[in-house]
């Protein structure tokens, strides 16, 4: 006969369990990054550029501001555009590589936000909608943040906060009305799992509780 537990788990334990279940649920519908290695969150954090033959004879170069330097380069293959190189602010440096699937929809975008010539973010798309952003946020040229989307909304985040290649933070953005609100759990004992005593609600009062 199945017995009920004699004591209730603490609220923090329940919250961690819910976060773990939510991560598993999201993982079933959202593709995991190709850099994922193990169930404990170990990742290949290398930022790998996907080739885009911008110097090929088939590339169509557009000089928007007439300074003699192409600002947009369309790379075509087999009669369709496969990738595009864009200088968004017309400063002569590449800001983004954009890649397209067989239907002409965006499937990948590599963006350089700090203008150092290297990608800081790789966004992955399905049917033209973003599903995952792999990000480099601490200027060490290694991926450290993985953001997962459902529709236009960021729903969860995984972070490697100490740069050892292992995920040690889990964020759940569970308030659709405020994208800044999240419940965050951390792995403080290096067992690859969120610790119950580490859970922080970044916007506790915004979930309907009246302010004092």
UniProtKB/TrEMBL annotation:
PROSITE patterns: PROKAR_LIPOPROTEIN (PS51257)
Source domain of life: Bacteria
Alphabetized UniProt keyword annotations: Signal
GO terms, molecular function: calcium ion binding
Keyword Signal on entry: yes
Signal peptide boundaries: 1-24
Protein's UniProt name: Secreted protein
Annotated organism of origin: Sorangium cellulosum
